[in-house]
Specification:
Blueprint: H1 3-9, H2 11-22, H3 41-56, E1 60-64, E2 68-73, E3 79-85, E4 103-105, E5 108-110, H4 118-133, E6 141-147, H5 155-163, E7 170-172, E8 175-176, E9 180-183, E10 185-193, E11 199-204, E12 214-219, H6 224-236, E13 240-246, E14 249-255, H7 270-281, H8 285-294, E15 307-308, E16 312-313, E17 315-324, E18 327-336, H9 342-355, E19 361-368, E20 371-372, H10 378-391, E21 399-401, E22 413-415, E23 418-419, E24 440-442, H11 443-461
Parallel strand pairs: 3-6, 3-7, 7-22, 8-23, 9-21
Antiparallel strand pairs: 1-2, 2-6, 4-5, 5-24, 9-20, 10-18, 10-19, 11-12, 11-17, 12-14, 13-14, 15-16, 17-18
Helix pairs in contact: 1-11, 2-3, 2-4, 4-11, 7-8, 10-11
């Protein structure tokens, strides 16, 4: 069966359906939370649209109280699951394309969610649709599960596990090819202090899993010398920023670079730069101490750095900073290899907080254990075979990542695509990754993903 040919024949319809999903701003918004819409109106509308598409094509659907939806194919007892999500991170700034619309340009599709994860989830759906259209017999019932809160803690899957059927094995189209058999553990750590600071207000960051790309810090006053220091700081750190006078005070603004928290080294944290500047220029002890604790993405100040045997380095991202009226709160996203654990991480934070002059306390808000599936298991080897069949890539191997996907929520699940290793860019336009502006993906890569997913279903359930 030539699944790639079939996928390309469905390209027009695929992008029509994807555009309908991308037009929905499905960020978590608890201000609009209600019955059957636990994460707000946006995720609810996206779920409705996805289930509407499936019903149109004759699939059996189930709504799990607005937390997730299930699209089923077959009636067999044994099950194969595919897990995708319909929620998105906040749109952010500086887009050159319309974020809530699929724009096709130079062979790429742009729009919030085309890569993370509406595009891949719909690719998995179209793979299932191809199998149905071709009447390909399967030995397992296929369960495509689409959740509504992956970006904000995966509460959707926690609820799903308690109220609905869990597939026996499967994959998640929300990461990289070839196969992701391991994911780092994920911990959220909060720092709190009531110590005095010259900062009147610093309200930066929207999610802990995004590097803070822009930040404003308000202070009462600034001298000519401090203005010169600010300009010097910007130049020596290759940053852009500004100083303006507002009703709230003197606003110090810095532009950094947004990035996914799993790879904080790809971003530039604007809030941390502001803490560093204020700490030095104003001799502000709290700002200096917070910066000293948070400045290193490997967690060296806390003595928690770890280069894992399978999963690589622990990473640490300062995702949210809220300072106002001598109340300071910071939320940190930590991705750690399976060579360490949250207990050791908190011991490091507690000791580091004692070593600074300011009164800062650390609290573990949440923890998710690492995912690890035997890389020699039939699940991994079958998926690797399918990937190599379509790409002829015999060099890339199954691997682990720092990002967290739904795979960690169920036993015997791995992540599988859609991003290819070592992609070759074929446009002069900026193409953003997950959580970045101008989020984009190659059209051909999405079509290939449909074919790979269809073949993978046959390999695992045929």
């Amino acid at each position: 069966m030539d699944f790639l040919k079939l996928a390309k024949e469905n390209e027009k319809n695929y992008f029509k359906d994807l555009d309908a999903l991308v037009q929905i701003e499905s960020t978590r918004d608890l201000s609009t939370k209600k019955e059957n819409a636990p994460f707000g109106d946006g995720p609810r509308k996206a779920l409705d649209e996805m289930l509407k598409i499936a019903k149109r094509d004759g699939f059996k659907t189930e709504d799990i109280d607005g937390y997730a939806g299930v699209i089923s194919y077959g009636n067999q007892e044994e099950t194969l699951g595919i897990l995708g999500h319909l929620d998105i991170v906040p749109i952010g700034d500086d887009w050159t394309k319309e974020p809530l619309k699929v724009t096709i340009a130079d062979g790429y599709a742009f729009g919030r969610g085309v890569l993370d994860d509406k595009g891949p989830a719909l690719a998995a759906y179209y793979a299932l649709k191809l199998l149905k259209q071709q009447n390909i017999p399967l030995k397992k019932r296929i369960m495509l599960i689409v959740g509504c809160d992956e970006e904000s803690g995966m509460d959707c899957m926690k609820y799903y596990k308690q109220h609905a059927e869990v597939p026996q094995m499967g994959f998640v189209p929300d990461a990289d090819f070839p196969v992701i058999y391991g994911e780092k553990g994920g911990a959220h750590v909060s720092l709190h202090s009531n110590d005095h600071t010259v900062i009147k207000k610093l309200d930066a960051g929207t999610r802990p899993n995004i590097v803070i790309g822009k930040a404003d810090c308000y202070v009462e006053e600034i001298s000519e010398s401090q203005k010169e220091q600010f300009e010097f700081y910007l130049k020596t750190n290759a940053l852009k920023g500004s100083i303006t006078t507002t009703e709230e005070g003197i606003c110090l603004h810095i532009d950094g670079v947004f990035a996914h928290a799993a790879m904080p080294y790809l971003g530039v944290n604007a809030a941390l730069h502001l803490l560093n500047f204020v700490g030095c220029a104003y001799k502000d002890q709290l700002a200096s101490d917070l910066y000293s604790l948070l400045k290193d993405w490997m967690g060296k100040p806390e003595h928690i750095e770890k280069d894992g045997a399978y999963m690589g380095f622990l990473t640490m991202n300062t995702g949210i900073v809220r300072i106002s009226h001598d109340q300071s709160d910071v939320l940190i996203d930590i991705r750690y290899p399976n060579d360490t654990n949250a207990k050791k991480i908190m011991e490091g934070f507690d000791q580091a907080c004692k070593e600074v002059q300011s009164d800062i306390t650390a609290t573990l808000d949440s923890d998710s254990d690492p995912l690890f599936v035997d890389p020699n298991s039939p699940l991994v080897t079958e998926l690797m075979n399918v990937y190599r069949k379509y790409t002829n890539d015999t060099f890339s191997c199954a691997k682990t990542i720092g990002g967290g996907t739904y795979a960690r929520m169920f036993d015997n699940f791995v992540s599988f695509g859609p991003e290819l290793p070592n992609p070759i860019k074929t446009t002069e336009q900026f193409v953003g990754g997950p959580h970045q502006r101008d989020e984009g993906v190659k059209v051909d890569d999405l079509m290939q993903a449909i074919a790979i997913y269809a073949d993978a279903i046959v390999a695992l359930a045929g």
